[in-house]
Amino acid sequence: MNDVQLHSAAVENYASVHQVASSQRFDECYHLAAQSFVADSFSDEFTTMEINVKGTQHLLAAFRDLQPECRIYFAGSSEMFGKAAKVPQDEQTAFHPRSPYGISKVAGFHLARNFREAYGMHCSSGIMFNHESPRRGFEFVSRKITSGVARILLGASSELPLGSLDARRDWGHAADYVPAMWLMLQQDNPDDYVVATGQDHSVREFCEAAFSHVGLDYSDYVKADHRFTRPADVELLRGDASKITKNLGWRPRIAFIDMVREMVSNDIEILKGGA
Question: What is the reported pTM?
């Protein structure tokens, strides 16, 4: 960590973003900051919009004025597609977001594209489908499941309440997706790319994989709880990453089952105090 220099900033505050952008020269900027929990975007849409939309505009404007040659990556989301008209979704699929979070990401995507077209900036967007790892936040369903398995296995809990088990998502590993971000900024010309595995799994299948990893049957522990359902849910998201595979040579390498097992094993070690 000796070669990492940290700067404090709040993206919703233009002055603080401007200060960081003026502090030194940057070759690349990866804009990953967001209020990214979909459920919270329903309970507090104002904060979600403030951070995700204004924050993106502040960052783009600061670099336009101070370092227009800096290459910028914007983190889009599969939630931008929402109630998609076709499956799988690619770069030409129309957006139909079903949450304030999805709406905010659509706005950020169009902002990045506008700065690219209006000011000639090297702005690329990755429309990232769900990417997981042992570092995923506990509020997300993937980590809620894997940490729940660990708690049940070690006797700290007896059940796992979840919302819809039938929702299907294209889950990949963050270790595969981060190189895709980097690849986008190494190109001569900026562009937008869907990043996905091309496979979808239900929340139920995620539970099956997680519980079976420790020899348990998910149906004995998972309980439906309508408190975790969204006002407007998304039933199915599956991405078509043909463009980034063809143009940049990217493809996912870590299998869904291996990702789930890694997350469960990690949460077991954390609960044991070994991590």
Answer: 0.94
208 part of the active site: no
- The yes-or-no answer on residue 12 being catalytic is no
Of the residues 36, 99, 101, 125, only one is catalytic, namely 101
What is the domain-level CATH number for residue 55? 3.40.50.720
Please check whether residue 3 lies inside any domain of the structure: no
* Average pLDDT value for the chain: 95
Please say if 101 is a catalytic residue: yes
Q: What is the pLDDT of residue 1?
A: 58
Domain span at residue 21 reads 14-272
Evaluate if residue 275 carries a pLDDT over 70: no
Annotated catalytic residue, options 12, 79, 208, 262:
79
83 belongs to a structural domain: yes
The bridge status of strand 201-202 relative to strand 168-169 is antiparallel
Q: Between helices 256-272 and 141-153, what is the axis angle to 10°? A: 50
User: What is the tens place of the pLDDT at every residue in 157-167?
Assistant: 999 999 989 99
Cα–Cα separations (whole angstroms), residue 197 to 25, 67, 249: 35, 34, 14
Please count the structural domains in the chain. 1
Q: Which pair of tokens denotes residue 38?
A: 């979909």
Active-site hit among 36, 77, 78, 99: 77
- DSSP for 142-173 reads HHHHHHHHHHHHTTS-S-EEES-S--EE--EE
Please say if the pLDDT value at position 223 is more than 80: yes
Look at residue 5 and tell me if it is in a domain: no
- Cα gap 170→255, rounded to integer Å: 12
Is residue 81 in a domain? yes
